[in-house]
Amino acid sequence: MRQLRQTLRLHLESRLSLRECARVLGISKTTVGAIVSMARVAGVDWAVAQALTDDQLETRVYRPAVPRSSRHLEPDFALIHQELRRPGVTLQLLWEEYQRGNDLAYKYTAFCVRYRAWAAALKRSMRQTHVAGEKLFVDYAGQTMPVVDAATGEIRRAQIFVAVLGASNYTYACATWQQTAADWVGALIGTLEFIGGVPRLIVPDQPRALIARPDSYDPIPGRLVQEFSSHYDVAVLPARPGRPRDKPKVEVAVQVVERWILARLRNRRFFSLAELNAAIGQLLAELNQRPFKKLPGCRHSAFMALERGELRPLPASPMAIARFKRARVNIDYHVELDGHYYSVPHRLVGAEVELRVTSTTVQVLAGSVRVAVHAYSAIKGAHTTLAEHMPASHRAHREWSPAKLIAWGERIGVATAAVVRWQMEHRPHPEQGYRACLGMQRLAREFTPARLEAACARAMAIRSPQLRSVTSILRSGLDRQPLPPKPAQASLPLHENLRGPHYYH
Predict the structure, then answer these.
(1) By the 8 A CB rule, do 163 and 136 touch?
(2) Would strands 211-213 and 201-203 be described as parallel, antiparallel, or unpaired?
(3) Which of 4, 75, 349, 489 has an alpha carbon 20 to 30 Å from 432's alpha carbon atom?
(4) CA distance 128 to 119
(5) What distances in angstroms separate CA 391 from CA 247, 333, 375, 460, one per listed residue?
């Protein structure tokens, strides 16, 4: 205290320099400068110092230290980190909300510096800012799970699919038998059903099952992926080959699923894929409910708060998963699929078409045009034929039945009906009879029904009701000649070896 008053007297009244004051009082020049500076800030000159007691002077110059926490109100950086994932939210907006009505708030620059320092302490994957409802990252895990066939004891390895939303880390996982295009798309459909909506982007790798032509800049997706994108109105943006940083979220999610789900199932035996998926589903619910270590809430709460409302609605019905196959139209205007034959328009004979096959339907595509649709059949060797695909002659042939052909013959005449019946009854195969009757119809158009009836009568009279006989009779004009008389039956000659009817009574 004595040094305080003496320092002020020497510097303010005697006008000594800081160096001279320090030499007189035996203290450092820095200490003298600090005292003079604090007195200036407190508004204390020598006249004021003289009017104050020692205690008052000390209290006036040496203000009590203000705790750091009371100088500034520390922001809730965890909440700020989550809010930044909402669409359109910026640090400027969050700072304005933070400092509104707060005298102890940091300035904008200090606010940004402190937030970035806080975010830098998080994991690398957590430092990236993902907009809510924007990206769904997907991949298959490297680890597989064994499934035992209860009947044979054979062990089959199931593949593990993993998906994670960018903003909330909400995670989905399921098991599939393979990693085919159908498995990928089926797992994606299951993911969208699980989260109850559709994001704007889906980010996978570039497996050949999904991408027909991989490329770092312009990958071309496969047919099934294109159908999936169109049905759910979602874009598929594959990560660049060899660039895992394009999808770090799912890389971390795969590790989390392997450690928190698959590791807990390692000692259990599963006898079906459905049983394995049920077990994964139970642990998945627990995983999404686990609290974050450095952020408030959990995956599920973050999903409900941030992303659920930003997802677009699902379509009215899920997509039917299809497979595609190239086929060539046979000469009988049919294509083969799994041993069954399906008709296509006869004009496409010899052309190459594409088959779109689901569990219930078979669609035939010529280029981008659908030319035929059939119900899927697993009966091998059988045919599914639509009448409109047949040539006119084949269609007319198909429309005839035995009863219809006989009725046509009866409209011509008794003899014609008899010849038609003979074709139906005496041909080795019904198709042969149909063709013969169609030939008779042609003869009726060529020679008139009356002449056909007369020719059939002559053919029946000579016991030769074949089509070629009727044709020969018409072309030779024999139908215009009278029928030959029926030969009279001659009486049997008498002979001793011939027994009369009385012999048997």
Answers:
(1) yes
(2) unpaired
(3) 349
(4) 9
(5) 56, 10, 22, 34
